[in-house]
Amino acid sequence: MASKLSTSEVKSLLNSHLEEVLNPEIIDAVLESGRPLEIYWGTATTGRPHCAYFVPMVKIAQFLQAGCKVKVLLADIHGFLDNLKAPIELVEYRAQYYKYVITSLLKAVGVPIDHLQFVLGSSYQKSPEYIMDLLKMSTQVSEHDAKRAGAEVVKQSENAPLSALIYPLMQCLDEQYLSVDVQFGGTDQRKIFALAKDILPKIGYRQRAHMMNPMVPGLQGGKMSASDPDSKIDILDTADAVRKKLKKAVAAPKEVEGNGVLTFVEYVLLPVSALKEGQGKEKFVVERSRDGLEPLVYTGIEQMREDYRNDVLTPQLLKPAVTEALITLLEPIQAEFQASPEWQAIEKQAYPPPPEVKKVKKVKNKGSGYPGAAKKVEAQPDGSVEGAGEQETDLGTNVRETLKKLDIVGEATK
Ligand SMILES: N[C@@H](Cc1ccc(O)cc1)C(=O)O
């Protein structure tokens, strides 16, 4: 490997926090050969990256620190194959936004990024070779198996669109086209990884290894809901917003299992401290000056867990410490955003604010029985419009006109 670390240091960086590795012998053989291990992690560029992204980012930082070559696949096409989560028109901007965030995040963690490469999915997934391989694959995978492979990743529905079946096949093929040794992802990707192991040899390609990190509880605990703006901490949230959101975080005293705040320390803050120090030493400090006590200084999660169970490390102590550490982690990223007009412009294009709900031109009130009676048109948080295009009346035309001006009319209502 290119790094100055010993083989055992490299292995411990690579394996830290992983739940499972498929075909580890593939990784061992590369490490023994002395060439850098090539790994990719793919992300469908849909919603705004939030603090949960720090978990895979820390792994990527560790891969880079260990001297691996890392490709981040900005899976724009996957972003709309999955239930059109990213509208086709926006997906390009979103991919760029992700690139800014991920680069900045990794720089903030303090690892060298010269072995990091971004690849846009659509840059090769539309090539004749790729498409032909995809078609070949489709002759080897049953509808049932393709569906099952995506069960934990792609939105499930009865009578699912064909795109939900194409999605996992393409993810398998990406391993070949990105010419890596390993695909990294969460354990939710396991069924797709298993399909890749099975299917790539059937179309003449070699199997890859797979590294999986566990699915961890979110920082704020409880149920994450896309419609609740407070349920996720955005990378660009102000310090005050972070404080407010973390105050609401669920962290039951003495309860270690499923504790999102402690988990964030384990998977993000401690490993980041080790990467930043550059000596592999984890450190997390909990201030207690308010109580006139010395700070608690931790060098690993086990001690913290123990103290938390015994209520020495109370939620009232832990939460503010995590809050301030997170704010410090976000600071350089936000400073970079503030200093970059390009990034700011992309952010606006990638995530346009939901269209204002304009009052539909008032029509003479002829009572609600009148066929053109006003229908409420509501802009939804995801940019869709509820109630639009439901009636073919004069008012329907009016509504469409208004929406057209706002540029939010879907194909079906045009
Ligand atoms: N399935 C990944 C995204 C992804 C897409 C394509 C890939 O090749 C790899 C990963 C996710 O859930 O976000």
From TrEMBL:
Keywords: Aminoacyl-tRNA synthetase, ATP-binding, Cytoplasm, Ligase, Nucleotide-binding, Nucleus, Protein biosynthesis. Residues 357-397 are annotated as: Disordered. The lineage of its organism: Eukaryota, Fungi, Dikarya, Ascomycota, Pezizomycotina. SUPFAM superfamilies: Nucleotidylyl transferase. Its main location: cytoplasm. Gene3D superfamilies: HUPs, Tyrosyl-Transfer RNA Synthetase. One of its GO terms (molecular function) is tyrosine-tRNA ligase activity. It comes from Tothia fuscella. Belongs to the class-I aminoacyl-tRNA synthetase family. Signal peptide: none annotated. It catalyses: tRNA(Tyr) + L-tyrosine + ATP = L-tyrosyl-tRNA(Tyr) + AMP + diphosphate + H(+). It holds the Pfam family tRNA-synt_1b. GO terms for cellular component: cytoplasm; nucleus. Its EC number is 6.1.1.1. GO terms for biological process: tyrosyl-tRNA aminoacylation. This is Tyrosine--tRNA ligase.
